[in-house]
């Protein structure tokens, strides 16, 4: 499946350059690639000490979970915008439909794997209130949801820090999506203390 997908030159070019978001996380060119590889790396690490996790399934889900974002966003003159399809259908349903089409072209693809891969895509937002039509119901889906959530929030925190932190400022503006303010420790004070102790 992954060989069929990633040997398609047109798809690969789109995957390598697509953003993973408009406002919240990885909202830049190649953000989708960065986000997907980061998640795959963490999932691979988790599989090393947990042999009961289906590694191939989880890594495939990590690489493909946001695949619908390729058709959900467009970039023009440096701005990321939603496509009509992205607004009307959402990237989870677009991704699941796209994957279903690819799988249907692979002779004798196991139906159990098809269902579990589609479940990974459809459940990766973790909650119905966050846009998932189903909640994670397999171990791999639960792992993918939490790793995706962590990577997204870490990138958003990085972006907020880069845009709002200054030597005079200890707190971010209120972050509605996290329902909190973010604290910016004064790293310079800490670094000076460490260098003086050496």
Description:
The model has no long low-confidence stretch (mean pLDDT about 90). Helix 3 runs antiparallel to helix 4 (about 55-65) and helix 4 packs across helix 9. This protein has about 200 residues and is mostly helical. It has a two-stranded antiparallel sheet. The protein contains 10 helices and 2 strands, in the order αααααββααααα. It is globular.
Strand and helix map with partners:
Blueprint: H1 2-6, H2 9-17, H3 31-48, H4 55-64, H5 69-72, E1 73-76, E2 79-82, H6 84-89, H7 91-104, H8 111-123, H9 139-164, H10 187-197
Antiparallel strand pairs: 1-2
Helix pairs in contact: 3-4, 3-9, 4-8, 4-9, 7-8, 8-9
Q: Main attributes?
A:
mainly alpha, Hypothetical protein af1432, globular, single chain, 59% helix, two-stranded antiparallel sheet, 198 residues
């Amino acid at each position: 499946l992954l060989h069929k997908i990633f040997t398609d030159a047109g798809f690969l070019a789109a995957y390598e350059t697509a953003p993973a978001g408009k406002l919240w996380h990885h909202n830049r060119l190649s953000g989708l690639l960065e986000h997907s590889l980061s998640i795959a790396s963490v999932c691979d690490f988790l599989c090393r000490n947990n042999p009961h996790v289906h590694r191939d399934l989880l890594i495939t889900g990590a690489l493909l979970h946001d695949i619908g974002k390729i058709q959900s966003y467009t970039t023009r003159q440096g701005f990321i915008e939603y496509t009509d399809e992205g607004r009307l259908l959402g990237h989870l349903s677009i991704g699941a439909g796209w994957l279903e089409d690819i799988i249907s072209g692979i002779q004798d693809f196991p139906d159990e794997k098809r269902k579990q891969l589609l479940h990974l895509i459809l459940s990766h937002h973790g909650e119905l209130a966050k846009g998932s039509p189903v909640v994670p119901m397999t171990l791999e889906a639960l792992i993918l949801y939490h790793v995706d959530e962590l990577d997204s929030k870490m990138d958003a925190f990085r972006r907020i820090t880069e845009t709002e932190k200054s030597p005079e400022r200890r707190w971010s503006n209120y972050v509605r999506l996290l329902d909190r303010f973010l604290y910016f420790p004064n790293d310079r004070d800490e670094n000076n203390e460490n260098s003086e102790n050496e």
